[in-house]
Structure to design on (231 residues):
């Protein structure tokens, strides 16, 4: 079955540092991946749509210069939280759609819990 | 602004009973509807999707869609303690999942009482 791998699963960093999160599709190619953020006891909020070979499309209110997205290949998208602050602490999840034959499933990565001190 | 509304709960249901989860959506043009289950600290996992008005059954789960009322629900029969989780309703404006984004509801926290 389709697998989306996300690393790291947990990261703790100091305020002001940058953190990179990787999202890989292990057995399929994904021209489009999605990045979500989830605060405690809240739903997933789409941050941006990552497009292979082109610029990401950001949702309203999401700072593109703070949340850098790079979709350099058909199997890898990265999200970099630049100059992280405590309010950026959240659960970040990526997802990708492998295409027909997978029962219309949108596969999610395992998520990254970011804690900024 | 597309909105998906769910009762946040918590919803408590005795083991073996039917759990009923509800969701309404604002975009009348929405085409496909999903129910995800999310355990605490984990990513969502798809339970069911539905496109057409009416009921769709898969094991203990039944999704119900009423596009005229912009309403979608999930029934869980013979509820088990392992069903305790947060259930997210998600709506897609089309059926081209590869390039279209889902809008999620806030989720309903379900607790099955042994």
């Amino acid at each position: 079955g389709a697998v989306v791998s996300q690393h790291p699963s947990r990261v703790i960093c100091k305020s002001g540092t940058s953190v990179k999160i990787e999202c890989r599709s292990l057995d399929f190619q994904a021209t489009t991946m999605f990045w979500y953020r989830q605060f405690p006891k809240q739903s997933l909020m789409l941050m941006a749509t990552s497009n292979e070979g082109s610029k990401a499309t950001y949702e309203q209110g999401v700072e593109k210069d703070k949340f850098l997205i790079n979709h350099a290949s058909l199997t890898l998208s990265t999200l970099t939280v630049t100059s992280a602050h405590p309010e950026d602490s959240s659960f970040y999840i990526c997802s990708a759609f492998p295409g027909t034959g997978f029962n219309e499933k949108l596969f999610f990565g395992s998520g990254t819990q970011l804690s900024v001190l | 602004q597309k909105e998906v509304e769910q009762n946040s709960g918590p919803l408590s249901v005795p083991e073996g009973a039917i759990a009923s989860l509800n969701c309404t959506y604002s975009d009348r043009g929405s085409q496909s509807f999903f129910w995800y289950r999310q355990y605490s600290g984990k990513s969502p996992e798809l339970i069911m999707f539905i496109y057409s008005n009416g009921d769709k059954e898969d094991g203990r789960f039944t999704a119900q869609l009423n596009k005229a009322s912009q309403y979608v629900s999930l029934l869980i029969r013979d509820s088990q303690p392992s069903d305790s989780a947060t259930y997210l309703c998600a709506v897609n404006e089309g059926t081209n999942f590869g390039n279209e984004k889902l809008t999620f509801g806030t989720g309903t926290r379900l607790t099955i009482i042994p």
Remarks:
- The CA atoms of residues 82 and 96 of chain A lie 23 Å apart.
- Chain A has a mean pLDDT of 89.
- Chain A has no helices and eleven strands.
- Chain A touches chain B through 22 residues (CB under 8 Å).
